[in-house]
Design a protein that fits this description.
single chain; 332 residues; mainly alpha; Four Helix Bundle (Hemerythrin (Met), subunit A); 10 helices; flat
Length: 332
Amino acid sequence: MSETIKTRRFWVLAGGTIATIYALILVGGIVRATGAGMGCPDWPTCFGQWIPPTSESQLPANYQQIYADRGYLETSFNVRKTWTEYLNRLLGVFTGLTILLTLLFSLPFRRHDVLVTHLALAGFILVGVQGWLGSRVVASNLNPGLITIHMLLAQVIVGLVIAAIIRSARPRLKQINTDRLSTIAYPLMILAMVLGLLQLVLGTQVREAVDLIAKQSNYVNRHLWIDNLPVIFSIHKYSAIVLSLLSGWLIVHLVSRTSSALLHRLNWFLAFLILGTIVMGMSMDRLNLPIYAQPLHLWMASLIFGTQLSILMIVRYARSSNDTGINANALT
């Protein structure tokens, strides 16, 4: 099998893994927004079954007492929540399978670029850690801090797979000319990515505060939740303006100063995602946290981080190639 075919197959598998992880992040956001996290009060089974029940009559008459004795208070069967959480778990298992195949298809790179395999291996190991952490989230009765760590680890995993794909494409990225980019562009790209990740962390803290307020208000009077949020909500909201302005400048700069179709597509996609997060953020602020906006806001923020990382790595490899060419020309 030629190296080109092996590389393309790896790209297909890794790209599918990335799509699956982002789908899992979206479904996880839906699980949290709908309160379905305890739809399955045990792990890895669901109400003690590998395939969950479809009606309460399929459970023991004293099932609530059984789970109360295990520390899960007020456990009542809700078919919608149970199957939402169960499908989330199934998608998690499928993600584990796709990242295992990604690792296997990365093995040919060991001969000429072992870092590709190491990145895929790190992602595979962390998926196992993520599964274990998911079981701890259930066991803790949805501890907010563990949920936040669970979400951030998903960003690390998808970042590793993205890095593996882009690393494997280095020979093609050498053809991208970055000579016209400002010297300050690359440091600002790093800054924008760091700020974007911080925004993601702040957003999870806001989400934790929303969960607490919702529980304290018995999930009623939704129109009052925003007013009771801590100051971190204002920090998250107004720092987003700074990040949007910085990202806007970088998008225009990269599109106007490079001729790479790949960079153009990624930057326009980034612009779309930033606009989408702004719309979702405004809808949460103005429409009293509609249930659809919360998972979409988190999902788009996650996609922003992945897109920023992709652009940063592409420019990095293109710059290193361009700089080598310049140095070589200077010596001749």
